[in-house]
Write a structure and sequence with these properties.
This protein is an alpha+beta fold and 372 residues long. It is built from 12 helices and 13 strands. The protein has 2 domains: 173 residues, Aminopeptidase (3-Layer(aba) Sandwich), CATH 3.40.630; 178 residues, 3-Layer(aba) Sandwich (Aminopeptidase). β3 and β4 form a beta hairpin. α2 crosses α9 and α7 crosses α10. It is globular, with a radius of gyration of 23 Å.
């Protein structure tokens, strides 16, 4: 049975969520620490709902849904259900991925089939179901029903099995990197140690130090990315407020990893990772490019040292998260596809929008060929 209902009181929701989580393989983005912090931080005007999948009174899967009307092209009102997010960029700047239902591994596909059947046949007051950072098979399952999709992004996350690192002669990822990358990392390590002193990886011992590390990371990140075409992660106030709250709540539990890599007295960079169920997920960075000279690859070096650091501490996986950047390809070879977009109901306005959008893309392509 599928039910979409108002959220219960937080202690009740926490009990249900943690009960499901105990038998459900899931990412940090579906963990109670992330979900509860998000619910605490979003604006009161946002009214999250609980999506429940149950059988004979037993809860088998759950997710948080938010319903809002999105004005497409400032012209078309689209009634949208959003999975574990709000559909508002101000609040979704925290970039949820590895998203989905919280469900046991053996029931996940069956639960999703029930949810998709519900939206395709029984749920009426909606136009789109927005899914951010989910497995692409969900889009395929919707398309097999003969219904339309609106894909906004298809990406991959990259993973490195830390057992491979521990199995090398020096217990270092440098030994498994491609020769050219290995040379760049070793060159950078030698160069910065010659200029500044020995390289050290440090983690904060207290919450106060963690706050300081996060502030230092923010400053370096903004210095590099503010004013760039895609902007910086801190350009929406909610992003910083959410993560400050997350650090306050989760640092003591070990879910938050803020690490500074220094050479002598000089900071080379800081990484902000999530550590959950043996997986270290790289979330954000601040690299001190002012400490680099020609030929240095500080970002690669900082990541390589953090990979080795986490391998030594017994973690199982280093997850670079989504975004197929060159440095991620250099460090992690295993890929996990992720899909962003909307499952669409059969609505005339959405068909018309799709036809117009497709026609404009065809026209632009033709004009480029004609003028090029």
């Amino acid at each position: 049975m599928i039910e979409i209902s108002p959220l219960p009181e937080l202690p009740v929701l926490e009990e249900r969520w943690r009960h499901l989580a105990a038998n459900s393989p899931h990412s940090f983005f579906l963990s109670w620490p992330w979900i509860s912090t998000w619910l605490h931080c979003i604006a009161p005007a946002v009214k999250p709902m609980l999506l429940s999948v149950s059988s004979d009174g037993e809860l088998l899967a759950a997710a948080i849904l938010v319903k809002r009307t999105i004005w497409r092209h400032n012209l078309i009102p689209v009634r949208t259900w959003v999975l574990n997010a709000t559909g508002d960029r101000r609040f979704d700047s925290i970039c949820t991925e590895h998203n989905g239902l919280l469900a046991s591994a053996q029931y996940e596909h069956a639960a999703w089939e029930q949810v998709l059947d519900h939206f395709s046949t029984r749920e009426k007051d909606w136009d789109e179901f927005q899914l951010d950072g989910v497995p692409p098979w969900l889009a395929d399952a919707w398309a097999k029903r003969g219904l339309a999709l609106r894909q906004s992004r298809l990406d991959v996350g990259r993973l490195l099995d830390l057992d491979r690192v521990r199995a090398t002669a020096n217990a270092s990822c440098i030994g498994i990197l491609a020769p050219r990358v290995r040379t760049r990392v070793r060159h950078t390590l030698t160069a910065v140690e010659r200029r500044f002193g020995p390289v050290v990886v440090a983690e904060p011992a207290t919450l106060q130090e963690a706050r300081s590390f996060f502030g230092e990371l923010k400053d370096l990140h903004i210095k590099r990315w503010r004013g760039q075409p895609y902007g910086d992660a801190f350009d929406t106030p909610f992003f910083e407020r959410f993560h400050q709250e997350l650090i306050e709540r989760c640092f003591a539990d070990g879910c938050i990893q803020l690490a500074r890599v220094s050479a002598g007295p000089r900071t080379l960079g800081l990484l902000y990772n999530f550590v959950y169920q043996g997986r270290v997920s790289f979330y954000q960075s601040g690299i001190n490019y002012a400490a680099a000279e020609r030929g240095d690859s500080l970002g690669l070096l900082v990541h390589a040292l953090l990979i080795d650091h986490n391998a030594r501490h017994g973690q199982a996986m280093y997850d670079m998260l989504a975004g197929d950047a060159q440095y991620k390809r250099a460090l992690a070879g295993v890929t996990m596809p992720l899909w962003w977009g909307e499952l669409q109901a059969a609505r005339h306005k959405l068909r018309a929008e799709g036809l117009v959008t497709s026609g404009l893309q065809t026209l632009r392509t033709a004009m480029r060929q004609l003028l090029g």
